[in-house]
């Protein structure tokens, strides 16, 4: 029989002896009993008389008894010896148990120290054993479940590395030692190994050199990541960048640098030490570093055989230097163009009748036009000195060109608050001389204000006369020549005007009796005896018609007069009837019909004339443009600067005139109905790109940002590619013409189930609601700020070509927030035309 130990307190040996000692005791008692029985049996045998037949049996019994006694004695001796050995072994086990318990106590005391914590995993599914503690300063929670949730108190990167290491330890037994950063910025060390078939991880708080090493390692990883990110950024940029060692040689360059020096790649450029800047540029950088560590200057460089201008920044570091070059060629070009544009705008402003004055962010006058100087009677010398706006207002006040104010200082301060406003402000000035000015203060995004002074004196006078005329017309409408009569639900007359009685020659006394519609019918039949017409009329007025729908008709009376009537159902079962004598109108209509036929014939002649004249104009214009281009060619002969400027004006004006002639010709062709669409598959992205290319120069000249939103894979549709490109070009040209300097234009293309939708949105001044209905009319043009309007044909052509494709065009605009024009073109215009038929 076996008895297994299940704890660590030494109960195995004691249990075994608790089982052996009673057995030994029972064995000794049994031996003593057998010995007593043997002695009694021997005495009995000795007392009986000897007989011959019983000697053998007695001898055998005595032998057996003696054997039992001997066995009992030997068993007792063996048991006594076993007892002595067991007691010696038990004493040794007690000593060993005490030693093991002391060792376990020391180990547990070491594990429970404040600078480490052990986690041991045994069989899968069993909770891990957690022992020991970590200092509170490191941020590790003491509670067991919270401690095992490593992601709550370690940084995400540290928690991820620890989970991966523990997974490999528990799966394959891979040992590890890693430094981990806690959420509060402290570092601990985690070491994993296997012991006794268990995965054990020890966590220790780092200090001293190990802590410094862990912090350095973490900082090294962050710096390495930052360096790699910066190098990746510099590799992706289009600006050449480089790093030099202390010896001045290139140690690293990016791909843009390699392309600029025409090397195979960045490594080839660095190994061959190919220089991006010339010797003078490098010497300038060296001289600049002698004075300060950061060198910034605009330097020339040869890139792909072309001379370009770069803004170079080179910085000295502990290991050498690093630099980057930003291409500023286009910036210099744009700055030159901007200067010329400003001069052109100044000349244009002088031609405007509206007074304009531009003040900078420092509230000093930057520019003005002649109308401003003349309107306020200001001296040109004073204005050219760029005076402060307060000084300008004082001069205007002295010449009585400002509204009379009781507190001029408060009024002026309120006026100048426009400099802190983001939106345009409008003021009305009533001057002492009787003039009225509409003053607009338009803030600049970069600071400053543009003041626009519009003299609306005549406009207000016209508006006053218009209001008076409206009142006169209202009085006239109260005395209409149209006869009006209102009948009640009972068919009796309730209301009438003098024109009704005059048209039907009815007596006012008769009408004052409120006659029935039947009585009025009988009175009117003497002028128009048509029973069927009067039956329909009476039915609609008396309400016998269940539908009570409005009706209208015409009566040709026997006296030759033609009367148009209309019945309108009113609430409460009433009916209003109107009569108008259209005899003269009918006669005029017949005359107009004949005249219309004549006008149609004249219109055909007009279209033929316009087409002929357009062709005749285009030929000399083509010659003018061609010869002007030849004059501009330096190979033909040198021109002076003024001559070159004049030839540029000729080319620009001739091109604009040719575009107008072509537009007129296109419209004439559309009106004549002889234009034919060349339908085919039109690639949306390619067509949009071609249209953008046509306005790219104007976009750069006005520093406009064109944003395109075209879904990838938008595909194609059936249309006339040339006309679609012309539609997009005119929409973009219109947006460019009405966009403020430096603003954005958005071009979108979307595909629906049956149409392609193009939309162009600008951030211009917008269109007033009263002009929205006429924007697609021909030769309708409106000025955008200081820029004069064009010929007014662009949107008219867009509408004509869109309608030729079976599409629609719409416009959405709000003053001060820009305009958006949308074009809907069917994907299959041929199919739509067939369906319409």
Question: Could you walk me through the main structural features you see in this protein, from its secondary elements to its overall organization?
Answer:
The protein has 837 residues and is α+β, with helices and mostly antiparallel strands. The chain is 50% helix and 21% strand. It is built from 27 helices and 27 strands. Helix 21 (641-672) packs parallel to helix 26 (794-804) and helix 24 runs antiparallel to helix 26 (794-804). The longest helix has 57 residues, at 55-111. One of its GO terms (molecular function) is kinase activity. Its EC number is 2.7.13.3. It catalyses: ATP + protein L-histidine = ADP + protein N-phospho-L-histidine. Residues 76-117 form a coiled coil.
What are the SSEs and their pairings?
Blueprint: H1 11-47, H2 55-111, E1 116-121, E2 129-133, H3 144-148, H4 150-153, H5 156-172, E3 176-181, E4 187-195, E5 198-205, H6 208-236, E6 241-244, E7 250-253, H7 255-260, H8 266-272, H9 279-291, E8 294-303, E9 306-317, E10 320-327, H10 329-349, E11 355-359, E12 365-368, H11 370-375, H12 380-384, H13 389-398, H14 408-416, E13 425-430, E14 436-443, E15 449-455, H15 457-477, E16 483-487, E17 493-496, H16 498-504, H17 508-512, H18 517-524, H19 531-542, E18 551-556, E19 562-569, E20 575-581, H20 583-632, H21 641-672, E21 679-683, H22 684-694, H23 696-701, E22 705-709, E23 716-720, H24 721-737, E24 744-751, E25 755-762, H25 769-772, H26 794-804, E26 808-814, E27 818-826, H27 829-836
Parallel strand pairs: 22-24
Antiparallel strand pairs: 1-2, 1-5, 3-4, 4-5, 6-7, 6-10, 8-9, 9-10, 11-12, 11-15, 13-14, 14-15, 16-17, 16-20, 18-19, 19-20, 21-23, 24-25, 25-27, 26-27
Helix pairs in contact: 1-2, 20-21, 21-26, 22-24, 24-26
Enzyme class: transferase
Protein name: histidine kinase
InterPro entries: HATPase_C_sf, HATPase_dom, His_kinase_dom, HisK_dim/P_dom, HisK_dim/P_sf, PAS, PAS-like_dom_sf, Sensor_HK_Regulatory
């Amino acid at each position: 029989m076996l008895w297994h130990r299940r704890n660590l307190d030494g109960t195995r040996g004691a249990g075994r002896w608790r089982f052996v000692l009673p057995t030994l005791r029972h064995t000794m008692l049994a031996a003593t009993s057998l010995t007593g029985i043997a002695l009694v049996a021997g005495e009995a045998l000795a007392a009986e008389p000897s007989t011959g037949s019983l000697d053998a049996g007695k001898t055998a019994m005595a032998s057996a008894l003696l054997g039992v006694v001997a066995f009992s004695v030997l068993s007792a001796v063996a048991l006594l010896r076993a007892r002595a050995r067991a007691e010696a072994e038990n004493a040794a086990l007690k000593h060993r148990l005490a030693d093991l318990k002391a060792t376990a106590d020391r180990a547990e005391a070491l594990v429970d120290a404040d600078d480490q914590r052990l986690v041991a995993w045994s069989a899968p599914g069993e909770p891990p054993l957690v022992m020991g503690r970590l200092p509170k300063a490191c941020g590790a929670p003491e509670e067991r479940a919270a401690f095992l949730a490593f992601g709550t108190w370690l940084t995400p990167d540290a928690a991820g590395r620890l989970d991966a290491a523990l997974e490999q330890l528990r799966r394959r037994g891979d040992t590890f030692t890693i430094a981990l950063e806690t959420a509060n910025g402290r570092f601990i060390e985690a070491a994993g190994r296997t012991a006794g078939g268990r995965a054990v991880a020890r966590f220790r708080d780092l200090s001293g050199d190990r802590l410094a090493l862990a912090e350095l390692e973490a900082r090294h990883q962050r710096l390495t990541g930052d360096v790699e990110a910066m190098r990746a950024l510099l590799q992706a940029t289009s600006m050449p960048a480089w790093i030099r060692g202390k010896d001045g040689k290139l140690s690293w360059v990016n791909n843009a640098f390699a392309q600029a020096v025409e090397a195979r790649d960045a490594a080839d450029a660095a190994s061959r030490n190919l220089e991006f800047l010339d010797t003078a540029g490098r010497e300038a950088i060296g001289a600049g570093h002698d004075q300060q560590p950061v060198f910034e200057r605009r330097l020339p460089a040869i890139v792909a055989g072309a001379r370009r201008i770069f803004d170079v920044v080179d910085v000295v570091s502990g290991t050498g230097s690093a630099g980057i070059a930003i291409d500023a060629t286009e910036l210099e070009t744009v700055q030159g163009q901007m200067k010329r544009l400003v001069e052109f705008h100044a000349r244009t402003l002088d031609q405007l009748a509206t007074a304009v004055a531009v003040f900078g962010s420092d509230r000093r006058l930057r520019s003005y036009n002649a109308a401003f100087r003349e309107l306020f009677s200001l001296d040109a010398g004073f204005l050219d000195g760029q005076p402060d706006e307060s000084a300008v207002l004082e001069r205007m006040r002295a010449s009585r060109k400002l509204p009379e104010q009781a507190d001029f200082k408060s009024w002026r301060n309120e006026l100048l608050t426009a400099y802190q406003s983001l939106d345009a402000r409008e003021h009305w000035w009533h001057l002492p001389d009787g003039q009225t000015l509409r003053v607009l203060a338009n803030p600049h995004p970069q600071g400053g204000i543009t003041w626009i002074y519009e003299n609306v004196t005549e406009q207000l006078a016209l508006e006053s006369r218009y209001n008076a005329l409206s009142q006169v017309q209202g009085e006239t409408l109260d005395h209409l020549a149209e006869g009006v009569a209102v009948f009640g639900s009972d068919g009796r007359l309730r209301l009438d005007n003098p024109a009704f009685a005059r048209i039907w020659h009815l007596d006012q006394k008769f009408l004052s009796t409120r006659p029935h519609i039947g009585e009025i019918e009988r009175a009117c039949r003497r002028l128009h005896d048509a029973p069927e017409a009067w039956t329909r009329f009476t039915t609609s007025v008396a309400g016998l018609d269940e539908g009570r729908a409005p009706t209208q008709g015409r009566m040709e009376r026997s006296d030759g007069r033609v009367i148009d009537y209309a019945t309108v159902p009113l609430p409460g079962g009433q009916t209003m009837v109107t009569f108008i004598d259209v005899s003269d109108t009918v006669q005029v209509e017949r005359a107009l019909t004949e005249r219309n036929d004549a006008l149609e014939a004249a219109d055909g002649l007009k279209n033929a004339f316009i087409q002929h004249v357009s062709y005749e104009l285009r030929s000399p214009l083509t010659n003018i443009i061609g010869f002007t281009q030849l004059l501009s060619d330096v190979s033909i002969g040198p021109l002076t600067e003024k001559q070159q400027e004049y030839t540029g004006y000729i080319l620009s004006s001739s091109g604009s005139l040719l575009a107008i002639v072509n537009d007129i010709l296109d419209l004439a062709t559309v009106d004549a109905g002889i234009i034919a669409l060349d339908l085919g598959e039109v690639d949306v992205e390619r067509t949009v790109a071609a249209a953008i290319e046509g306005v790219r120069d104007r976009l750069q000249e006005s520093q406009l940002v064109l944003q395109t939103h075209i879904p990838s894979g938008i595909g194609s549709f059936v249309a006339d590619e040339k006309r679609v490109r012309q539609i997009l070009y005119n929409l973009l040209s219109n947006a460019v013409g009405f966009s403020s300097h430096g603003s954005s234009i958005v071009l979108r293309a979307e595909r629906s189930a049956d149409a392609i939708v193009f939309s162009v949105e600008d951030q211009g001044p917008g269109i007033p609601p009263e002009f929205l209905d006429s924007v697609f009319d021909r030769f309708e043009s409106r000025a955008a700020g200081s820029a004069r309007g064009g010929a007014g044909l662009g949107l008219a052509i867009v509408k004509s070509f869109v309608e030729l494709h079976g599409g629609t065009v719409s416009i959405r605009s709000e003053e001060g927030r820009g305009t958006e024009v949308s074009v809907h073109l069917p994907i299959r215009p041929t199919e739509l035309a067939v369906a319409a038929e």
